[in-house]
Design a protein that fits this description.
Number of strands of chain C: 2
Bound molecules: adenosine-5'-triphosphate, magnesium ion
Helix content of chain C: over 70%
Chains: A alpha/beta (248), B mainly alpha (304), C mainly alpha (328)
Largest interface: B-C, 46 and 45 residues
Largest sheet of chain B: 2 strands, antiparallel
Mean pLDDT of chain C: 90
Strand content of chain C: under 5%
Oligomer: heterotrimer
Number of helices of chain B: 11
Number of domains of chain B: 1
Shape of chain C: globular
Chain lengths: 248, 304, 328
């Protein structure tokens, strides 16, 4: 019996006439890198949004560590151990890089109703900030405004922020999008390092990245999971080749 | 019963005025995403110009036309000079700049017309009362206001649902990107919508002229009621404006008329009048709070 | 806020200069015989306090409230109502007697204002953006009409106080002493808020203003922080209201009128949004401009309006931003 950290059962979500999740089921094993692939508009981001709690499913359930979290608000899911990065980069443009990271650190460190001491003097921030920034290579840009970073740097910051919460399950929605070849290699290295420490749900279009990293792959087409398996199984699956790889 | 029917008519009349105010403003909110505090100023402009032209020409109809023209044209000028710069700004800048416009227009009317309020007579052909049903005698002018409001609502309905311009406006209210993708001249559309909105405000102003005093600052109290209407109805929804306006008009009027009496049933009359009157003046805000709790985006939210 | 070293140095100089100016003003005014300046600047300081509290909401919390005057008014009415009951010896609600002791009245004004902010805020924060602006405005107007309906406390005409509050060891009736008490309150509030905005709470707050969605996905219930911010802002305005009631020895519904909310917003923007010290400058410039324009023309508002529009269109960070060379 496999140890599943996440089980998605019969998830349905429509936007008007579009069925973005169509009776979707798949399971993610603990400490795997599990990739979700599928053509544009297949409904991958919609899945991530429902898992993170930003979108409410129409029906179906989401079990995280065997607990049904499908009615939890976003912050309770984060507290339960779900972390994510966004397909469209989402950092705090109005704060500095260090403040962005400090926020991510403080988020997991009890309540923040502390009104007097400087945020960056909090013990947890002092302890982790430097390491968290250097992990994604941003230590020398710490005082820069995040809004002024390049696209690739924002991505790094974003992934770095998702990492500090030490989520049990980290969802990365197209982390490589918009990164140059160098950035992609760097980020792949980072994800490999994380493997074994946490479970990663990776949405990615770059097939080289997916086949290099993933332990398991689920193929999403028109909101449904048409196949799940090891990279070899997926590569050899005729249905997948026809529905998805065949298009390329 | 008679009293009740009369108050219903009064409520309708306030509702109609509020509808004229909010129909334009909700479109400006919905389409341009700009918050305009100066909408009441065009109500005031309509009232002043209408009163002046009516007095000079002796014709109420000429007054109405002049009010429509003045409010519509000044609206478009303001859109060209100030509002256009604000579309890309955040709401705070919009609030402050249009707040500045209020200062300017209020003082401008004081410079032109002086500090004393103007009083506008009901035109002779609309004076007097008629008996609508046994025992219910109602001023002709107020019925006229209700009639004009309904007619305008019909015209607007026609404009929105049957004409090309109306379709573009509706499309703009629900999906801005879509409209520009369809190749509509957005700048012109914006100016026209804004002008249409201020023209309706001007109409509301001139119609209110013979009922209230025409004075500097008269636009602000109606503006805030208009906001309440829009919050209740949902930003960008003309249907919401209709329902919200009637709801607010009726609740406000009936509350003022009957709440003090209601409280007299179980409080001493002086206390009841006090409590009833303050509660009545707060009733629409309580209504708004209730709508907010149940439907934070209003009764008819436009999708975005 | 990200500041270059040169701009934070300029800021330090500017704030020190401002503090020295305000501290020395009454001495200079007494010496030169222009004592009316003391009461004018008392007004500036009190409005500055209200404007700073609004800056906390708008500039840091991202909460564009157009109903801030409500809390000023509540602070004023708490002061006025307690005073009247103390004066007439009739217990309030049949429970406790009124008082004119500032050590009781002012904290109570702050607490009651914060309590109202809790209620209004938790309703208004169900929405955001344009809705939030209109709803805060509408709630403030509701309280305005409520105040107008308070026949027992003067209704439309307002409520006169026959003297200022008493503060042990001091005589608030003396304009000079009252000035310094107000200045002390402003300084205290500025110190508290400038610590606050860089604290953990402040960081979350600024993050929520910039990107609420991201705050939520970090697992922080951002709206609650905004609500607390709304309450702190309301509390500051409540204190300003209590001081204002003392200065004018008079409370009336006009304190809550929405034009006051608008004017406070103007002061914030004129001085510099999100700078805390800027709104002090903004309040001074606005009230002085009003005073000066009124000397030359009865129709000063016709000039103030366009000036305002020009400031909005062309001076993004307000006067404080221009003076400290802030850019971002
Ligand atoms: N908020 C929304 N409202 C309406 N339709 C939506 C919404 N979000 C997504 N959709 C639709 O749902 C479908 C799935 O979208 P989704 O973004 O999940 O796809 P995706 O697999 O992430 O695509 P991509 O690879 O391009 O990122 C698409 O047809 C999209 O147009
Ligand atoms: Mg996607």
């Amino acid at each position: 019996m496999a140890d599943y950290i996440l089980q998605v059962r019969n998830l349905c979500k429509s936007f008007g006439a579009v069925q973005a999740s169509a009776n979707l089921s798949f399971s993610v094993e603990r400490r795997n890198i599990h990739a979700l692939i599928g053509p544009n508009g297949a409904g991958k981001t919609t899945i991530v949004n429902q898992l993170s709690g930003e979108l409410e499913q129409d029906s179906g359930s989401i079990l995280f560590n065997s607990v049904d979290i499908s009615s939890y608000p976003v912050y309770r899911r984060v507290a339960a151990g779900l972390g994510r990065s966004f397909q469209i980069t989402s950092v705090f443009d109005n704060l500095s890089v260090a403040e962005n990271m400090a926020l991510a650190i403080l988020a997991g460190d009890g309540h923040n109703y502390r009104f007097w001491n400087h945020a960056c003097n909090a013990a947890s921030v002092k302890r982790e900030l430097a390491a968290a920034l250097s992990r994604v290579d941003l230590i020398d840009k710490a005082d820069r405004s995040a809004g002024a970073l390049s696209h690739g740097e924002k991505r790094q910051l974003e992934v770095g922020m998702a990492l500090v919460g030490k989520p049990e399950l980290l969802m990365l929605d197209e982390p490589m999008a918009g990164l140059g070849a160098g950035g992609t290699v760097e980020l792949m290295k980072l994800i490999r390092q994380l493997k074994g420490q946490m479970t990663i749900l990776l949405v990615e279009h770059d097939m080289d990245v997916v086949f290099a990293l993933a332990d398991r792959i689920s193929v999403i087409v028109y909101g449904a999971c048409i196949a799940s398996g090891s990279p070899e199984e997926i590569r050899g699956n005729p249905e997948v080749q026809q529905a998805y790889l065949g298009e390329n | 019963m008679i009293l009740f029917a009369e108050q219903i008519l009064n409520g309708l009349q306030l509702g109609i005025t509020l509808f004229l105010m909010s129909a334009g403003l909700t479109l400006v909110f919905g389409i341009m995403k700009v918050i305009n505090l100066a909408h009441g100023s065009f109500y005031m402009i309509g009232a002043y110009v209408g009163a002046t032209v009516t007095a000079a020409s002796g014709s109420f109809l000429a007054g109405i036309l002049a009010a429509l023209g003045a409010a519509g044209i000044s609206g478009m000028v303001v859109e060209l000079i100030v509002l256009r710069e604000l579309y890309q700004r955040d709401h705070l800048d919009q609030v402050l700049a249009t707040f500045g416009l209020i200062f300017f227009f209020n003082e401008l009317t004081r410079i032109i017309w002086g500090k004393q309020p103007l009083f506008m007579d009901v035109p002779t052909w609309l004076q007097g009362n008629i008996e609508i049903m046994a025992g219910l005698v109602y001023p002709v002018y107020r019925l006229f206001v209700i009639g004009v409001g309904c007619l305008t609502a019909l015209l607007l309905w026609f404009l929105f649902s049957r004409t090309r311009l109306g379709m573009q406006i509706r499309a703009g209210a629900s999906n801005r990107r879509m409209v520009s993708a369809l190749g509509v001249n957005i700048k012109l559309l914006y100016t026209l919508v804004f002008g249409l909105g201020t023209l309706l405000a001007g109409l509301a102003g001139v119609m209110a002229g013979p009922i209230f005093a025409v004075e500097s600052g008269m636009g602000e109290s109606i503006l805030i009621l208009t906001f309440v209407v829009i919050v209740i109805g949902g930003i960008g929804s003309v249907k919401g404006a209709v329902i919200g306006a009637l709801l607010v008009g009726l609740v406000d009027t009936l509350g003022r008329a009957f709440l003090p009496q209601l409280f007299r049933l179980f409080l001493s009359s002086s206390v009841a009048d006090g409590v009833g009157a303050s509660l009545a003046s707060m009733s629409i805000y309580i209504l708004m709070a209730a709508v907010l709790i149940l439907r934070p985006k209003g009764l008819f939210p436009s999708h975005d | 806020m990200i500041e270059s070293p040169s701009s934070s140095k300029k800021k330090l100089i500017l704030v020190t200069a401002g503090a020295l100016f305000l501290a020395a003003l009454p001495v200079a005014a007494t010496w030169s015989g222009d004592v009316y300046l003391i009461s004018l600047f008392t007004r500036v300081i009190i409005y500055a306090l209200a404007a700073v509290s609004l800056d906390l909401l708008i500039g840091y919390g991202g909460l564009i409230s157009l109903g801030h005057a409500a809390f000023v008014g509540i602070g004023g009415y708490v002061t006025g109502i307690l005073y009247v009951h103390g004066f007439e010896g009739e217990p309030l609600l049949g429970l406790f007697g009124g008082t004119d002791n500032a050590l009781v009245v002012w904290p109570l004004a702050v607490l009651v204002a914060a309590g109202f902010a809790l209620v209004i805020g938790s309703l208004s924060l169900r929405t955001s953006g344009m809705h939030f602006i209109m709803i805060t405005l509408a709630f403030a107007q509701m309280l305005y009409y409520f105040a107008v309906g308070l026949e027992k406390y003067g209704g439309d005409d307002g409520l006169p106080l026959y003297s200022r509050n008493s503060l042990p060891g001091l005589d608030l009736g003396d304009d000079l002493q009252f000035y310094y008490v107000c200045l002390f309150c402003l300084a205290l509030f500025l110190i508290l808020t400038s610590r606050l905005v860089s604290s953990r709470f402040g960081l979350v707050l600024r993050g929520a203003a910039g990107n609420m969605r991201r705050i939520l996905t970090l697992g922080i219930p951002g709206r609650r922080y905004q609500l607390v911010c709304f309450m702190i802002g309301g509390a500051g305005a409540g204190l300003a209201g209590a001081l204002l009631a003392n200065q004018t020895e008079y409370v009336s519904p006009t304190l809550l009128h929405w034009t006051v909310s608008g004017e406070l917003m103007v002061m914030v923007l004129l001085g510099g949004l999100g700078s805390l010290f800027g709104p002090v400058l903004g309040a001074a410039v606005y009230l002085l401009l009003e005073e000066i324009l009124a000397m030359y023309t009865e129709h000063w508002m016709a000039y103030l309006g366009p000036i305002l529009i020009l400031v909005v269109l062309f001076a993004k960070h307000g006067l404080f931003g221009v003076l400290t060379g802030r850019e971002d």
